[in-house]
Amino acid sequence: xxxxxxxxxxxxxxxxxxxxxEGNNDNSQVVVYNRIRADIIDASDGTEDSSFHIxxxxxxxxxxxxxxxxxxxxxxxxxxDVDFRIESDGLTHAFVVDGGNNKVGVGFGAATFPDxxxxxxxxxxxxxxxTIVRQESGNxxxxxxxxNLAFMGVANTNTTASADAKITAxxxxxxxxxxxxTDLEFYTKPNGTGPGSGPTGRMxx
Length: 205
Description:
Blueprint: E1 15-24, E2 30-42, E3 49-58, E4 61-68, E5 73-75, E6 84-86, E7 93-98, E8 103-108, E9 118-120, E10 144-153, E11 162-173, E12 181-188, E13 200-204
Parallel strand pairs: 8-9
Antiparallel strand pairs: 1-2, 2-3, 3-4, 4-5, 6-7, 7-8, 10-11, 11-12, 12-13
């Protein structure tokens, strides 16, 4: 199937295609229950951009459920109470965004999450916790960071976030074999530290 908009004067933001799925409601009114739309964003030769949208009827109002744009892919752009959920072979909520409660959960078997913005549940006795993997073609060199867990805060008068505290894993020695060693470093900010400045090292294991 080919949908071809043959225009003699294509321009930015021209509509390419609209497909409507219609049906009657219980009052014999014709309702557009679903709609697909494609648009030209940039018609310039060599830099063409497009967008693609899927709309769905929700509580009597059409909502944008899925959008592909030149610079992003968006789900639920109109900020509705809609969950995004991915199932795995054994988990109904392997990854879920709880739209109504502004939560993200990973690894859950049911839609019950702790009262925190982000949570991970590990049901496998042999694979518990969160792992940060830094993988590269060679071995980490001496004093090279392997990963950071940063706690960041932004003051009302400052839009730049900086780590107020962090935990850093660092390759203490070249990870090329039996000489490999790792440091675990702990940082916090002292009182009176201004916004934008980093925390101070407190302890190294």
